[in-house]
Amino acid sequence: MDSTLLKELYNKYQRELFLYIFSLCRNREIAEDLTQETFLKALLSLSEKHSNIRAWLYMVARNLYLNLLKKEKGRVDIDEMREFKDDGNVIDDVILSEQKRLCYKALQTLDKMKREVLILQYFGGLSQKEIASVLHISTENVRVLSYRGKKEMKKYLEAKGYDI
């Protein structure tokens, strides 16, 4: 692969791949390592004529994460350290933080496939066809999982007192 093309791909997709991997493993260091490894694999084996490089990168990142899970078998370290910033809008920050936390909790209640579909759809910005390619399922299955996942999240949020 041409180094110019690799730099372009890295600049374009590094952040979203990192966020995707981070959403899976919830560990910054692991997400950074897997992101770098994804681009290393692209450098070593990706053809410049590949039809959908973005979906391929997501698929490689996901497979690297799954391989890591197999190696570590349940040894997942979850460190959620968040900094509190005081910029004068403390109430607004607290409300927004609470909303994000609740949405994150709702997302975590979903089974693995629904959660992954929604993460790829909304945070990765992938189309249903691209998601189907990454997860090796049909586009119809992606549509159904997305619908059911959103429905379950809505039910969870309503149970917590949010009017959706």
Describe the fold and architecture:
This protein has 164 residues and is mainly alpha-helical. It has seven helices and no strands. It has helices spanning 3-25, 28-45, 53-72, 90-109, 112-123, 128-135, 139-159. The longest helix is centred in the first third of the chain and has 23 residues, at 3-25.
Number of strands: 0
Structural class: mainly alpha
How would you describe the shape? globular
Biggest sheet: strands, sense, closure? none
Q: State the share of residues found in helices, binned by percent.
A: over 70%
Number of helices: 7
**Beta-strand content:** under 5%
How do the SSEs run, as a string of H and E?
A: HHHHHHH
**CA radius of gyration:** 18 Å
- Indicate the low-confidence ranges by residue numbers: 74-86
Report how far the terminal alpha carbons are from each other: 47 Å
Mean pLDDT: 81
